[in-house]
Amino acid sequence: MTEKQIQRKRGFLRSSSLVVMLATMVALVAACGNSEGASKPANSSAAATSSGAKVQPPSVINYGYIGTNKLNFPGGAEGWGFYKGIIQEEFKKYGITDVKLVAFPNGPDQSESLISGRLDFGSLGDTPALLARSTGAKTRAITQGATDSIGYLIGKKGGPQSIADLKGKTVAIQKGSFMHRYIAGLVKEQNVPDVKFIHMLRPDGEAALSRGEVDAMTNSAIFALKQIEQGYPLIDDASKHPNLIGTSITVASEDYLKKFPDFQKVWNEARLKALKDLKTKPDEYYQFLSQLNGFTPELNKKVSPIETIKDVNFTDDGLKLLDGTKKFLVDEKLAEKDFDLNQWILK
């Protein structure tokens, strides 16, 4: 073989080797590309499965409400639902098998338990719920079950007969309650100076009023009507001041909503089912309320008519009242700081 032929063969071999190398590289790149392409759908599928997976909430849920009684139930659609087991049955569909109900004497105490994590959710007056949120409490409002909470101002026998008569007098209030907002707003509207407020729970306030140790007290409807029947003068009530009417709010902790993102929907559907049931049994419902508070079914029908229980999460009128209460609490520096109501309400 001539030198020229040898060089030509070497060139051919180098070219062939280069082609083989290039082909191998192309194959490797293609393989890597196919591998990446295959892995992407797999990852996407896993993410979709993860995000679409059925959330399993804790098997135990803790609910707080205002008012103690021997049956350990609140009133309203919520109480009826728990009493009849309607809500418990709905919760079982989601793996919640143990519902613990906890009673509190007032809203601030319940808010404290919710903030500390001892409760997952609860129903209370709008004022304590708003005050808690103003301190940074990680809660969300999920239902406004009633929008007609009337505060009453009851005087001692032989004591003040009008709002103006409260000048220089002492009034027992439940600090942080919707009745606190009512009397504070009333005194401001009527420009009555030198009114002293002292915090007392209802039983203590009623006892102090009977002994003449306070000049007046705020009270809620059914207990106030009983006092009026006993001869205590009714000085005023919030029905005469529509902007001072309170509402009832159900709030849930943000931590619990992370564990059970659909809880608001589940709760409101269960509550609505309970409401529909009690509407078919009005006499039984008022008898149930009578067992809770010790007053006659007739009196319960008068102060807590079924018609006032809301069948939707929030109403325009209810939200207006809620916004007005928040602004008042902020303006009067009763709330620690302002916050966006729309960021608190979960619709």
Properties at a glance:
five-stranded mixed sheet, alpha/beta, D-Maltodextrin-Binding Protein, domain 2, 14 helices, 347 residues, disordered N terminus, 2 domains
3D structure, described in words:
With 347 residues, the protein is α/β, with parallel strands linked by helices. The protein has 2 domains: 60-148 and 246-344, Periplasmic binding protein-like II (D-Maltodextrin-Binding Protein, domain 2), CATH 3.40.190.10; 151-244, D-Maltodextrin-Binding Protein, domain 2. It has 14 helices and 10 strands. It has helices spanning 3-52, 76-84, 86-92, 107-116, 126-134, 178-190, 202-210, 221-229, 254-259, 263-279, 282-293, 297-303, 316-331, 341-344, and strands spanning 60-66, 98-104, 121-125, 139-149, 151-155, 170-173, 196-199, 216-220, 234-237, 246-253. It has a 5-stranded mixed β-sheet. A 5-stranded mixed β-sheet has the order 7-6-8-5-9, with helices on both faces. α6 links the parallel β6 (170-173) and β7. α2 crosses α10 and α4 (107-116) packs across α5 (126-134). The chain starts with a helix and ends with a helix. Belongs to the bacterial solute-binding protein SsuA/TauA family. The chain crosses the membrane at residues 12-31. This is Nitrate ABC transporter substrate-binding protein. InterPro entries: Solute-binding_3/MltF_N, SsuA/THI5.
Let me know the CATH homologous superfamily of the largest domain: Periplasmic binding protein-like II
Terminal Cα span: 91 Å
The CATH C-level class name of the largest domain: Alpha Beta
Strand order of the largest sheet: 2-1-3-10-4
Unreliable stretches (pLDDT < 50, length at least 5) are 1-51
H/E series: HEHHEHEHEEEHEHEHEEHHHHHH
Largest sheet: 5 strands, mixed
Structure classification: alpha/beta
Number of domains: 2
C-alpha-based Rg, rounded: 32 Å
* Number of helices in the DSSP assignment: 14
Kindly state the percentage of residues in helix: 40-55%
Mean pLDDT: 87
Give me the CATH fold name of the largest domain. Answer: D-Maltodextrin-Binding Protein, domain 2
Protein name: Nitrate ABC transporter substrate-binding protein
Transmembrane segments: 12-31
Family: Belongs to the bacterial solute-binding protein SsuA/TauA family.
Domain Solute-binding protein family 3/N-terminal: 72-284
